[in-house]
Amino acid sequence: xxxxxxxxxxxxxxxxxxxxxxGGATAADMLDDPRTARVTGDxxxxxxxxxxxxxxxxxxxxxxxxxxxxxxxxSNLTSGNGARALWLLLLPFMVANLAxxxxxxxxxxxxxxRLYGVLVRLVALTLTVLLTASAxxxxxDLTAWQCAGSGACAGQRSWLGFLSAExxxxxxxxGRRLALAAVVPTALVGLLWYLSNRTWSAYExxxxxxxxxxxxxxxxxxxxxxxxxDAATPTELRPALGRPGFWYGRRLVARLRAAHxxxxxxxxxxALAGAAARHDPDGGLLGxxxxxxxxxxxxxxxxxxxxxxxxxxxxxxxxxxxxxxxVSWLPASALLLLALTALHTGWSRPxxxxxxxxxxxxxxGTLTLAQGALVVGLGVVALLxxxxxxxxxxxxxxxxxxxxxxxxxxxxxxxxxxxxxRVADWLDGPGTPGTGEGLITGPPVLLSWQASVxxxxxxxxxxxxxxxxxxxxxxxxxxxxxxxxxxxxxxPDPVRTGQIAAGRARAxxxxxxxxxxxxxxxxxxxxxAASVAGAWxxxxxxxxxxxxxxxxxxxxxxxxxxxxxxxxxxxFLLFVTWGRRAYKDPSARRTIGIxxxxxxxxxxxxxxxxxxxxxxxxxxxxxWRMSSWTRRTGGRLVISGHSQGSVLAAxxxxxxxxxxxxxxxxxxxxxxxxxxxxxxxxxxxxxEALGGLHRTVHCWSNLYRATDPxxxxxxxxxxxxxxxxxRPALLDPVAYGRTREHPLPEPIxxxxxxxxxxxxxxxRAALLDRLPPALPRQRGNAEADQGxxxxxxx
Length: 794
Hints:
By secondary structure, the protein is mainly alpha-helical. The protein has a domain at 14-73 and 614-793: Rossmann fold (3-Layer(aba) Sandwich). It has 25 helices and seven strands. The chain has a seven-stranded mixed beta sheet, sandwiched between helices. The longest helix is centred in the first third of the chain and has 38 residues, at 110-147. The chain crosses the membrane at residues 85-103, 115-135, 178-195, 258-277, 289-309, 329-347, 362-385, 397-420, 449-470, 516-537, 549-576. Residues 207-238, 771-794 are annotated as: Disordered. Keywords: Membrane, Transmembrane, Transmembrane helix.
């Protein structure tokens, strides 16, 4: 039972609200005291204080010299049991969702902004279809059609015996085998729906604070992909992350979940209908029913596309509506049509035998071409959006969204092609599918080509990797003079200087990430085109994947295919193992936590099956706490965020009404606000957005180190009587050699332990001095405020 927050008797106390970063932290670590108590919250995310500080508001005289520390622990929102490692399998969906938020900033141009959102949502839809089609390829084509239809292959797999065509059982007919195997991809789609629906209640259900109707805000936001009905609301003048509906996406997620679930079911139905269509005669009852089923599939597929394109995010107001009819009937209709298709496919056809492969080449080829066209279109729209304003710091000149969308398609293609090839190798035993020498024909030719480009892509990555390593070594040497100048040491130590210079050079590698992403995306686009061309050159004939090439090229491509198949199998196991370790081992979590926590920070705006957005819980938590505490006490508050916690802190401050922001100071350290978010998400964290935050919050200071690979300056200059946000870079280590104050060598801290630097306390004290004096509140007013807060939360 957590202790209740004490009812204040005076408003003299100041509060420091600590928010940790991606590595996670315990309340004891953050408060530097093993005796902590939960003030408010639950086991997933909560506020903690030292036990000695629980009654701080009742005794403000004790805290005249320091603020009351209070820690917000949110690490359980992104970590937990090992089963969450399976979320790593949803990585293509998460990356596609990131592309939605990477559009360039713009004023007006609402149609282009909506078109950008529509194109990203269509890319996300193709990924769902691709994942389901890959599951159909493995379950229906490779297993039920090819292996079960081959006596030699089925004879090596005892669990396929009852499906074997040679046994002549009830399930031996190809249509019935396919209908039974369709349960696997159908269950996969159902699992994705279940996971999305389950996380919905834990994240999207957290309502942000009310009271926006009287708070128009000072800054005009960039255009967003919103409903036109919201265009005239007074909250239009809010910055994007400060809009009342930004962190409440239930309506869109529910709508997209229904559409993607229906698309998955329709993909399975299309695989069954395509198989039966090749056998059914043009006349007769089965042929007529097949044409009816195919027509229904086309009509429902068009409905899904319309649902995806018609509505984007609604941010300008808190939209509590749910289109329950659409959410329920669209997946149900697709599932019913799938059942009818399975019944039609499984109908007795005595003369039907399974030979060759199912018609999957056209489907995978169409998907690949559609994804390439959508990414190119997305790039054109991004260039049009960025034309009026060009910030040189923006990643890839505003093409970060299309590049990341290309990476999402590449991840989906590599996973689908590699897994299909690996399963085919496993089913074929000692044979080699795709060469005409195995027990089964193998996967579609395009998937064989996609598996073969994996080693080529890895080889291409060696070139920029080697260049970055050489540049880092040269930068380390050139930084030696700067290091010795910063410390002004009378007796320089070459070893110590080299360590510090190397730390600074390695930290600068983060700024090279856009170039690396651009190289990978460009190479992926070219290799994808080469895969399509290779499949086309071989005539899309299974078993003759590389027949159209020269003998040496065919031999190399076959070797690359086999290597790529084994690499994707090994990578799949490594992926899951690494993910499980990351959610149990804090040190391993820090390794991949940057990308993962950046990806799941953003709401699910493009793909409903992406991992859930933890900020839709964390940001309302912080906003509620700051609003309620300042209203009840009239005191001063410093929200202090480290690393990803600084992004949560900034997002929460944006959500505050002006009266509350006037009593809040923002302290960020090790912050990726500009270095990562400002460059990759310029519409939301670009120079204008961060400048607007500087103008709206009462005061803001940022601390950073040259050895920090994640945090950096926010580059917000002084404006009027407001000083620049960035303080001078902290020296790391704090002492070059042994001194009286530091008799032992000090470590190079990099991204950690900012609070150990004396400058941290000085920056916090300066912010508190700049805040207005505390306003004593009467007990009756505090109780009234508390009551109104409770009514608004209900």
